[in-house]
Write a structure and sequence with these properties.
The protein contains 3 helices and 5 strands. It is an alpha+beta fold.
């Protein structure tokens, strides 16, 4: 395997994980999954008390691990012969799997916010969601609570 084939393998892995990140479930307050459509949500009104920046950890579905392992094995098999080749292949699989898993996790990690809201009924709730809407202390907001207990904050 030449350097250009290694570059192609790396590019292929990165493209695969990028596509995979598009399939990750959304943590946005503005995006509803297919299962959340046409489901009733309780609506509460309240005032934002505090907004804190957080990081929402990425997913590790195993697809990055598998793709990285396969590409690492292919790359490793290009080196040596006999026992050395087998050792290089195994090393490539392990290293590729670790790299693929890390790439998948990093590609699906997003910036989020923890929004503390005092509802008009006096209850205080904190909701963590993707930071795709800007909230400020004192903002009047709607808090939607679904039947499964998940919540989102909307303006």
């Amino acid at each position: 395997m030449t350097l250009s084939n290694n570059s192609i393998s790396t590019f292929t892995l990165l493209m695969f994980v990028s596509l995979l990140s598009a399939c990750a479930p959304s943590t946005s307050g503005q995006v509803y999954s297919r299962d959340q459509a046409r489901i009733s949500h309780q609506v509460f009104f309240g005032t934002v008390l505090e907004v804190r920046a957080v990081t929402i950890e990425g997913t590790q579905s195993g697809a990055g691990l598998v793709a990285g392992g396969v590409l690492g094995g292919i790359a490793g098999s290009a080196f040596g012969g006999g026992t050395g080749r087998r050792l290089a292949t195994v090393t490539g699989v392990v290293a590729g799997a670790a790299a693929g898993s890390a790439i998948e996790k990093n590609a699906t990690t997003v910036q989020g916010q923890e929004i503390s809201v005092e509802l008009d009924n006096g209850e205080i709730v904190a909701v963590v969601q993707e930071a795709d809407i800007t909230f400020w202390d004192g903002d009047r907001v709607r808090v939607l609570r679904s039947q499964d207990g998940t919540m989102r904050v909307r303006q």
